[in-house]
Write a structure and sequence with these properties.
Helix content: 10-25%
Structural class: alpha+beta
Radius of gyration: 47 Å
Strand content: 35-45%
Distance between the termini: 170 Å
Number of helices: 3
Oligomer: single chain
Length: about 475
């Protein structure tokens, strides 16, 4: 029916007395701005009477030769007009019509009529509006979504092809044809989220329109089985975030490869009902492994898995130098390692040295801050930082302290042995004297006998 109206409308201005007609076609995507061209070829055409009209909306814009202008009431939106003709172009004989924020209803046949000194020039412009639309506009994961490719007016005999995220897509279900487009119904899946482009082919003409489909569900982590990287000893947020407007009735983050499968329901990092992320205050080696974010929305259970990879720097001394090794609990996605040496002067000014490559490096001048940055195919994955000079200093302190402690222990042990021997001898003498004092007469006898022996010895010597 609409095509018949367009043909009749076109025929009317073709038969207009004294009129000369030209036909132009313009296409635009819904929501954009479009310019419908109209130029007066007569020299010094201004002031001319100009009338813009649409097949089913009457007058769009009109200017009399006196300069008075009129706007169609149906072209106002929120108190302002969606159409205008730039005044600066009038002196050039250009009366192009600008339409802002075009929609599917704006598609159709327009007529530009120029009247000047009894002469009439009419130009026909076929405006086709393209649009890709979704219903519902943001479906929940697993819901049925309708995707429609619209062109108004629809070209007879046109064929539609689809692409999703720049990859050719063949609808799994039947295609519904209607007057202004083609409609397909699909189950909203994660792989269908993104840019939908419909290509309309008609003879040698090809038109296209693109729109983005958002599938609501878990938005962080961004995809299933993603690897997340954290430095040993640093805080880390384990993501579990749902689309805005979704408030799960129950949600948790759990560790899958743990004997006890701990759940972190009471360690949420946010008060938002859609953010159920948890925070690990200090990453430890046992935090490495697989996790799962789970939430129940209405009657549907949403899940997404992720893996936490822990990175650390292992330091060792070798022949007066320090070896730094960047180690990850899972390095399967790592393609390159970079080491950045950072030092600070007495004023705290930061200085960055040359970049070294490789998972392990040898540092001769082992002081300052070293950061290991590791990369994957898509760019930087993460980094981990260490203080190399602290290790060297602590090693020297530990060695000297150990040597000093050894000498002290040996010296104290030797003095203790001598002291014990002296005390033992003193104790023996004390005990012996104590036993003798119990018998004083015996002491006198022993003393007398001893004196007599000494006298006998002296007499022998004299004789």
């Amino acid at each position: 029916m609409m095509l018949v109206e367009i043909v009749l409308f076109g025929g009317i201005f073709l038969l207009t007395t004294g009129a000369r007609c030209e036909m132009t076609e313009v296409t635009a995507e819904a929501g954009s701005q479009v310019v419908l061209p109209c130029k007066c070829e007569i020299p010094q055409c201004d002031p001319a009477a100009i009338t813009w009209s649409k097949d089913n909306k009457g007058t769009v814009w009109r200017k009399q030769s006196s300069g008075l202008q009129y706007l169609g009431s149906s072209w106002f939106q929120k108190g302002s007009s969606r159409v205008r003709c730039p005044h600066s172009d009038f002196v050039k004989g250009k009366y192009s019509l600008e339409i802002n924020d075009v929609n599917v209803e704006d598609g159709g046949l327009y007529k530009c009529k120029v009247e000047f000194k009894g002469r009439v020039i009419e130009k026909g412009i076929m405006l086709r509006i393209l649009q890709v639309s979704f219903s519902p506009s943001a479906p929940m994961l697993g819901d049925v979504v309708s995707v429609q490719c619209t062109m108004s007016p629809w070209p007879e005999g046109a064929v539609v092809n689809w692409m999703v995220n720049s990859i050719s897509y063949e609808p799994k279900n039947s295609v519904i044809k209607n007057q202004s487009g083609r409609l397909i119904k699909e189950k909203a899946l994660e792989e269908l989220a993104g840019n939908w482009t419909c290509f309309i082919h008609e003879s040698e003409n090809v038109w296209k329109a693109t729109a983005q489909l958002s599938v609501r569900g878990i938005i962080q982590p961004s995809k299933d089985n993603i690897k997340l990287y954290a430095a040993l000893g640093s805080p880390f947020t384990m993501p579990c975030m749902f689309s805005p407007g979704i408030s799960p009735t129950w949600a948790m983050v759990e560790k899958l490869d743990s004997e006890f499968s701990p759940m972190f329901k009471n360690r949420s990092v946010s008060t938002s009902p859609s953010d159920k992320s948890i925070i690990i205050e200090e990453v430890q080696p046992e935090n490495e492994g697989k996790y799962r974010c789970t939430g129940i929305v209405k009657t549907q259970t949403l899940t997404r898995s992720m893996q936490l990879v822990v990175a650390k720097v292992v330091k060792s001394k070798k022949r007066g130098s320090v070896m730094l090794s960047c180690q990850l609990s899972d390095s399967s996605e790592v393609t390159n390692y970079e080491w950045v040496h950072v030092t600070y002067d007495i004023n705290g000014t930061k200085s960055v040295g040359s970049i070294l490559h490789g998972p392990t490096i040898t540092v001769e001048d082992n002081w300052g801050e070293w950061t290991c940055r590791y990369f994957g195919k898509s760019g930087l994955l993460g980094n981990v930082t260490t203080q190399a000079y602290l290790m060297a200093g602590l090693s020297g302190e530990k060695s000297s302290a150990a040597s000093s402690n050894t000498g002290t222990v040996i010296g104290l042990s030797f003095l203790l042995v001598i002291l014990l021997l002296i005390l033992a001898q003193m104790y023996k003498n004390h005990q012996r004297r104590k036993r003798i004092l119990q018998y004083p007469a015996l002491e006198t006898i022993v003393h007398t006998i001893s004196n007599e022996r000494e006298e006998l010895e002296k007499n022998r010597v004299k004789n």
